[in-house]
Amino acid sequence: MSTLSKRKRIFLVIIVCITGIFQTGCAFKDINKRAFVAGIGIDPGEDDDEKYKVTLKIAIPIGSLKQAKGPTYSYLSYEGETIGESIRMLETHIDKTLEFGHAKILVINEKLLSDDLGQFMDYFTRRGDLQLIAWVAAGRPSAEQVLKTEPETESPASVALFNFFDDSGTESPYITTTFLFQFRRDFFAIGLDSVLPLVEASENGKELIINNSLVVKDKQDPLELTPVETKDYNSLASGMVGFSYKVKHGDLTLLLNIDTVKMNYKIITEQGSPPRVDMNVKMIGIIGESSTDLAFKNLKKYNEYASKAMEKKVVKLLTILQENELDPFGFGLRYRATRLSNKNTISKWNSMYPNLEFDVTVDVELKSTGAIE
Amino acid sequence: MTKKSQGEPTPPDLMVELAGKLKPSSDVQQIPLQIEEKQAFLLYLKTVVDGLQLQNIVIKPFFELSSERHFEAYVNSLPNKVKMPAKEELLIELTKGNVLLVIQDRFVLLDLRKVNSDTVLQTTIEPTIHGPQLALSESLETNINLIRQRYHDSSLKIETMQLSDQSHRSIAILYDEKVVKKSILKAVKKKLNQLDTPLVQSSGDFQLYLTDKKFTLFPNTIITERPDRIIYNLTGGKVVLLVDGSPHSIVLPVVFFDFLVSMEDVYHAFWIAKLTILLRYIALVICITLPGLYVAVTSYSPEVFRTELALTVAGSRIGVPYPSFIEVLFMLVFIELLTEASIRLPKAISATATTVGGLILGTAVTEAALASNIMIIVVSLVAISTFVIPVNEMSYSMRISRLFLLGYASLFGLAGVILGFLGIIIYLVNRESFGEPYLRIVAKNREEEAKGDNK
After folding, report:
1. Interchain contact B323–A (C-beta under 8 A)
2. Which parts of the sequence belong to the Spore germination GerAC-like C-terminal domain (chain A) (predicted)?
3. How many CB atoms lie within 10 A of CB B282?
């Protein structure tokens, strides 16, 4: 090889190396060329021909966080036959790539919940970049309005809706938290119904209220739980604490601050007696407020009063659910799991559930009267 | 020797021959000593010999002692007397500062060298707070003295040999006979005997000649200036090489984790030492992976960030004209320039360089939207982490490794970072330092420990 060709070759290698430095992989897309979808809302189509209306809440990045007054969002809506189709079309409405990696909230109009949920849920569980740890919520009056609500307390570069659910902001037993994976699993599980938080947008578009929840069952109108029922459900099913219970006994009114709730139950089907659920609830807390002076030595008495009052509340919640043939606690699933399975198991349970008796024992353990004697 | 009865005495033939070879250097001194019946000849190079010592040890007694026989006996008992080398090496010995003395046809070589580089230096490369503050000197004998004075054990063996290159430098091999691994010692000696190098200047280039591979990224030996690190490694069974004229010693063999040991660890309480070691490993990971991670996460998988961070990063990149990896590359080159500049510049100016470069340029770059704020944080963090690695050579290696990871990240995203990291680990596992696995984890279970290294 002559020296010249060797030089040429070295020169070529250098050129290739230098140009190679400025190449990237195929999926390379700079972060400022992506539009971060913060939430997805689904409403029934306003146009009669179209089935769904998809709304995307897009968070706009802020250059200087210190000078920003609040978060800025942009909203995109499209009506289409399917959700996938609508999102594809929405990609043509924006100059940046839609990035679903941060779409952590999925708001479904409450009217859609009585529809065939399984079908449109499919899209979200299949899509790889949409994370299954997204939260699912029902929206009222519409998903679009819920997404478009921008609370005044929302700080720049943070999404208020996330703070409700991720326990880094407010923590309350009135707020039900349902993940997408959980919702889908509960939805398809036989003997268990899923519960969704209901997000209400105030009329002035400045406030979000989340304290109700909906028990959803396929092809059936959802049952709305009142805030108190939601709280009772959350504390029993997921042990959520940080709430107060009011107990009345004669003149005495006590407000209990409960910090631990433990619940377990057994389904008892014995020959000769009607099937029943034995539920034991243990609550530990202190007295937070009282109408009269309390004595520490009477703590046992207060425990009894509280236990009686609690039992009533729990039985009431269970009865409401039973009357509507809804089962968010998953009694049916437990029954199926603990009985010898055959093809009749579930139909047997379905006929048994409306007549099920609830035997609830609540054991309240108050640690103090809440005052120093 | 032919003697004339009177007038100038004639020096022996060998001495004339040697002097001829050394000419026309102006510092060659060939001095006849003569009084009455006594006669002797001196041959030496004036510039490398301590004249005062020569005067006191050789010349004065010559005139004081009564006869040549007395003088010869005196000279033979001098501690400066060196073993007579072969004729070919005599010239080298003379250039080292030895004095050739001829009495009564007998040749004697005396070591009266003058070394001006034997001041013990302050530690500059690996300073510690609690450890010894003095490093080595640039003279081999002083260095051996420093080490001997810290390690009084007869099992410490010091073998000196002379390199066959142009500089004919002396080197010393130090090891503790009780703990050194014989196979390594043998390998090192073999390597030293086979060395065929044109010129050795210092420990730095010498250690490169000791490695077989030409294209290496990670150092195969540790170069250290700290006597305490030398002792620490000697007791650990390692071999230490000292090169005359270099204030650094070479410690071998090494494993990767040796480069993350600072002598400070020995001087601190248990938990403090453990915390600083942990910090060092965190810094290591940061300095290798962070530039790559930044590119991979911002340009391939921003879902890894928290939403708030993703929005902030996206916001800080508004208006940055180049893709993230160019931005990183640009800033890394910038910080490398800054580091290089502050090393090369005189100490008085280097502070200015870092201020101008680091503070003013850094701010201006973000103001001009050439790089994002987050990028400046990333680059500064990387630079600081690099300085945490205690042994300088390893931090150089890390500076190159992270460019490699950056390349992988800009091609394959997060998976590329993992892949590249795996690649580095595979490369390290594949390496050996004088027969010892490079990425060997020191911790062993008791059974293995008992078995030892004898396979």
Report:
1. yes
2. 224-370
3. 12
Domain at A229-366, CATH from 1.20.1200.10, 3.30.300.210, 3.30.200.20, 3.30.310.10:
3.30.300.210
What would the two tokens of residue A205 be? Answer: 């578009």
Q: Which ipTM score applies to this complex?
A: 0.82
**Is the pLDDT at B441 greater than 80, yes or no?**
no
- A156/chain B closest Cα distance in angstroms: 8
Q: Check whether B2 has a pLDDT greater than 50.
A: no
What residues form DSSP beta bridges with A252?
A: A249
Tokens representing B58 are: 């050789």
Q: Cα torsion for B24, B25, B30, B31, to the nearest 10°?
A: 120
Residue of A nearest to B323 (CA): A30
Q: pLDDT tens across A207-231, in order?
A: 899 989 999 887 788 899 999 899 8
Of B303, B320, B407, the CB nearest to A101: B303
Residue from the list A32, A131, A158 with its beta carbon closest to the beta carbon of B314: A32
Average pLDDT over residues B69-92: 84
Looking at residue B426, what is its pLDDT? 93
CA distance A311 to A360: 6
Q: Which of B308, B325, B416 sits opposite A158 (nearest CB)?
A: B308
* Closest-CA residue to B378 (of B443, B299, B321, B313): B313
CB contact under 8 A, B303 and A23: no
B363 and B387, same domain (yes or no): yes
Interface mutation target, options A26, A31, A168, chain B, most CBs of B under 10 Å: A31
Q: What is the mean pLDDT of residues B81-105?
A: 84
Distance, in angstroms, between A145 CA and closest chain B CA? 22
Non-local CB neighbours of A364 within 8 Å, separated by 6+ positions: A256, A283, A284, A285, A303, A306, A307, A310
Q: What is the pLDDT of residues B365-423, one digit of tens each?
A: 888 888 888 888 999 899 999 989 888 888 899 999 999 999 999 899 999 999 999 99
Residue A192 in tokens: 């268990």
Neighbouring-strand partners of residue A359? A278
Say how many CB pairs under 8 Å bridge A and B: 90
Whether the predicted model's global pTM rises above the 0.90 cut: no
More confident residue, B194 or A199: A199
Question: Which ranges in chain A are annotated with CATH 3.30.300.210?
Answer: 229-366
Nearest to B225 by CA among B214, B238, B240, B215: B240
B282 and B417 belong to one structural domain = yes
Quote the pLDDT of residue B1.
42
CA distance B307 to A157: 8
Tell me which residues of chain A have a pLDDT lower than 50.
none
Neighbours of B355 (CB within 10 A): 11
